[in-house]
């Protein structure tokens, strides 16, 4: 009896050898991504796609067959590796649509490398070994000769037919699954990637004539008060929105071994209006998505970053609303304006001016822009110039230094971490946010000294999460459990703070009202006394509504939402979804209803339909 060694198998049966190699790589990907890991059914989900590719090689590669196998192996390996790395950063399954994001990767390479566990690189082991061997001419020649042998045609046809049938069996029944991760698990990763390429891109939009504010309010169950609270309470004041990079709500009033982590934000929270049940609503564009949602009160697009997808639209926006009432409008960010297509987004939003890397310069650079010290110092000078001009202004100020992976330079350290936090992801995050708070404190004092603070409405919030559950190792999980006194949850991950401060208006008060970034525009409009009758918006004034529903996308599967008592995480649909208490104390009874689930999906469709059908601002 003749046994086929791996070497012999490679030279005489490459279709079997490379299929086995891809099975091992699929095993690695499944163990990283899916909660239930790898099982025997995974073979029936991943290998049929691989065999289809290899059958084509057997049919059409008369020469250099082994080279085509290596190329196909490399391509599928890169897909699985990209899926692993993207999941570790975003918690979602990457698709071809993320190719729009490739030009951003070099700017955030430190973030990418920080997510990489060394064993992920095992996925390339076979490629490296075979590449080395192929550089040995005698070995390479022997392989090419052996590998050139044709497989039995009937066997290849049978394998191809069975593989096609299995792929269709995995794909077709699972197309309706709402949760993208569940869908990829049901179909198989490679099948899911193929499905996303070939699936129907035609979207059935709701007619614009049917999208009215009354319709949106009805879906959200909003009842407009006859005499809104705090109407015009901040009339005539400047508006300064402070968007804090990666700032999560657990940092508020947090002490570690007696050390106050964010004393300046704590003071702001404890002396003004503070919303503790406030949540991010961003997607692939992260910070730029937060800019879009806050300035438009629309939801992010179903695919891609808002700045890429919607920047060619005439967007109703907060800058345009304030400009119509005589405001000068500006935005400040130390990165280059081309990053995430911000230059086009700012035109669509209608800002009068933007200040980016060109304005802030290369002095004291951290990651990919000037530090928060430089951001706030130069921004304060510009705000004073605007203030002295005698015209009210709106300034959107975006911090940046506390950016993933949070490894700020030692000269920026403003605290000493306890030993157990050193050299951990959580520890780096806390130290970076401590510095961000320090720099913000200097900015606040600077604005007060210049007389700007007392004449302004200040809105501060976090742009998005900093500590994804899926990026934490065991040490990080233990540290988060120590901070929370329980297991770190999805609700904690999505929770960011919102603070509203204004001299003569706000006082120490904590609001339990549920809110999201989409609610900031209508809340500001109410405080300034500006009507939104001609501005479609999907948020609500947080001072005058007791009920809310917040659809989520991207960081959570489509169909997920927050209601007044819990976070609902969708499954294939509603019935197999999971319910998490907003208190973060685990899975709860079904407080979030199927009606809310359906209304959340409807709100997303209304927003997609409305924004997608807006006229373009670009000249032909």
What's the short story on this structure?
The protein is an alpha/beta fold and 620 residues long. The chain is built from 24 helices and 17 strands.
List strands and helices in order, with pairings:
Blueprint: H1 6-12, H2 14-33, H3 40-60, H4 65-90, H5 102-105, H6 109-114, H7 125-134, H8 137-147, H9 153-171, H10 180-187, H11 189-198, H12 213-220, E1 238-244, E2 255-256, E3 259-260, H13 263-271, E4 273-279, H14 287-296, H15 306-309, H16 318-323, E5 328-332, H17 342-349, E6 353-355, H18 357-360, E7 365-366, E8 369-370, H19 372-388, E9 393-398, H20 425-449, E10 456-462, H21 474-484, H22 490-494, E11 495-501, E12 509-511, E13 515-516, H23 520-528, E14 550-551, E15 561-562, E16 566-569, E17 578-581, H24 594-612
Parallel strand pairs: 1-9, 1-10, 4-12, 4-13, 5-6, 5-9
Antiparallel strand pairs: 2-3, 4-11, 7-8, 10-11, 14-15, 15-16, 16-17
Helix pairs in contact: 1-2, 2-3, 2-4, 3-4, 3-9, 10-11, 19-20
Task: Explain this structure.
The chain is an alpha/beta fold. Strands 1, 4, 5, 6, 9, 10, 11, 12 and 13 form a nine-stranded mixed β-sheet that branches. A four-stranded antiparallel β-sheet has the order 14-15-16-17, covered by helices on one side. A two-stranded antiparallel sheet has the order 2-3. Mean pLDDT is 87; it is low at 105-109. The longest helix has 26 residues, at 65-90. A hairpin with a 2-residue loop joins strand 2 (255-256) and strand 3 (259-260). The protein is built from 24 helices and 17 strands. The chain is globular, with a radius of gyration of 27 Å.
């Amino acid at each position: 009896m003749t046994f086929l060694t791996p070497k012999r198998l490679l030279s005489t049966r490459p279709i079997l050898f490379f299929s086995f190699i891809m099975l091992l790589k699929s095993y690695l990907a499944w163990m990283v991504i899916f909660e239930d890991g790898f099982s025997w059914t995974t073979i029936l989900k991943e290998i049929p796609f691989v065999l289809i590719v290899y059958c084509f090689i057997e049919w059409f590669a008369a020469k250099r067959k082994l080279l085509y196998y290596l190329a196909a192996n490399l391509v599928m390996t890169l897909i699985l590796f990209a899926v692993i790395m993207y999941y570790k950063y975003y918690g979602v399954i990457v698709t071809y649509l993320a190719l729009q994001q490739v030009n951003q990767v070099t700017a955030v390479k430190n973030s990418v490398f920080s997510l990489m566990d060394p064993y992920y690189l095992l996925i390339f082991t076979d490629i490296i070994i075979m590449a080395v061997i192929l550089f040995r001419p005698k070995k390479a020649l022997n392989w090419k000769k052996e590998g050139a042998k044709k497989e039995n045609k009937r066997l290849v046809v049978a394998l191809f037919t069975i593989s096609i049938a299995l792929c269709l069996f995995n794909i077709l029944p699972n197309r309706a699954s709402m949760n993208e991760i569940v869908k990829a698990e049901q179909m198989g990763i490679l099948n899911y990637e193929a499905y996303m390429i070939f699936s129907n891109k035609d979207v059935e939009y709701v007619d614009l004539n049917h999208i009215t504010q009354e319709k949106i309010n009805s879906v959200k169950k909003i009842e407009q008060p006859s005499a809104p609270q705090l109407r015009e309470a901040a009339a005539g004041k400047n508006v300064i929105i402070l968007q804090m990079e990666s700032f999560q709500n657990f940092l508020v009033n947090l002490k570690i071994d007696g050390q106050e982590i964010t004393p300046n934000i704590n003071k702001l929270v404890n002396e003004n209006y503070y919303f503790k049940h406030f949540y991010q609503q961003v997607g692939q564009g992260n910070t730029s998505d937060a800019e879009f949602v806050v300035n438009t009160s629309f939801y992010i697009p179903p695919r891609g970053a808002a700045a890429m997808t919607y920047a060619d639209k005439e967007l109703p926006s907060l800058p345009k609303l304030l400009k119509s009432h005589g405001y000068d409008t500006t935005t400040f960010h130390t990165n280059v304006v081309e990053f995430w297509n911000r230059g086009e987004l700012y035109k669509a939003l209608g800002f009068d001016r933007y200040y980016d890397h060109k304005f802030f310069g290369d002095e004291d650079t951290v990651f990919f822009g000037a530090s928060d010290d430089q951001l706030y110092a130069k921004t304060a000078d510009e705000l004073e110039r605007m203030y002295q001009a005698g015209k009210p202004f709106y300034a959107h100020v975006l911090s940046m230094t506390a950016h993933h992976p949070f490894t700020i330079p030692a000269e920026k350290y403003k605290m000493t971490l306890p030993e157990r936090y050193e050299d951990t992801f959580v520890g780096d995050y806390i130290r970076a946010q401590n510095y961000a708070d320090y720099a913000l404190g200097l900015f606040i004092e600077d604005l007060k000294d210049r007389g700007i603070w007392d004449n302004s409405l200040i809105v501060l919030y976090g742009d998005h999460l900093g500590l994804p559950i899926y990026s934490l190792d065991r040490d990080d999980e233990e540290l988060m459990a120590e901070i929370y006194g329980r297991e770190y949850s999805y609700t904690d991950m999505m929770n960011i703070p919102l603070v509203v401060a204004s001299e003569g208006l706000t006082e120490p008060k904590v609001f339990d009202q549920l809110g999201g970034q989409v609610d900031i525009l209508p809340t500001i409009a109410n405080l300034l006394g500006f009507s939104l009758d001609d501005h479609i918006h999907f948020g609500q004034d947080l001072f005058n509504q007791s009920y809310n529903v917040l659809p989520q996308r991207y960081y959570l599967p489509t169909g997920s939402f927050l209601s007044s008592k819990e976070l609902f995480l969708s499954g294939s649909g509603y019935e197999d979804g999971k319910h998490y208490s907003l208190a973060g104390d685990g899975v709860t009874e079904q407080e979030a209803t199927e009606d809310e689930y359906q209304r959340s999906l409807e709100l997303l469709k209304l927003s997609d339909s409305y924004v997608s059908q807006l006229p373009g601002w670009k000249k032909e």
